[in-house]
Amino acid sequence: MALTHSISAIYVLVLLLSVVVSASASGGYGSDHIPEKSEPKEQEKLLSTTLGIQGIIYCKSGSKLIPLEGAVARVTCLANDDHGFERAPFSILSDATDDKGYFFATLSPREVQENWRLKECRAFLEVSPSETCNVPTDMNQGINGALLNLYRPLTEKKMKLFSVGPFCFADDKSISNDY
């Protein structure tokens, strides 16, 4: 199961990388124009970069935010094929959060269909392990999806690291529309 999550995470990172390329070529995420073909050298450079997505997931109980161990986030991406047609969205799941609520997902170039370009990727709350704190909230777009658009390059790891959240599940008593 961990291997499946790792493979899925690598796939999303590759797709995210294509989004970065597509965004810079089109002037922004979500552009509806047909992407142009990249120079081979540019594609080789992009395909050697992994995308990482990190964040923290909390449980909101009353006024307290408690790190939620074992929670999972989902990263969903749209992509255009080599003819500029939008493809069905695909998703990867993060590894389960640690005892500090931290999650991490990766997407490598091997996970993206050849000649596809990422158009837009978003991170969402997916699963809470808690029976009492399992209601997703839209804090930092945890329900609607936090757009992955800013990254920090990690040159030594050949990775572009995106940060989202923090996201939050709530117990029934803590739910509010303040997010």
Automatic annotation (TrEMBL):
The keyword Signal applies. Keywords: Signal. It comes from the Eukaryota. Residues 1-25 form the signal peptide. Pfam families: Pollen_Ole_e_1. This is Pollen Ole e 1 allergen and extensin family protein. It comes from Xanthoceras sorbifolium.
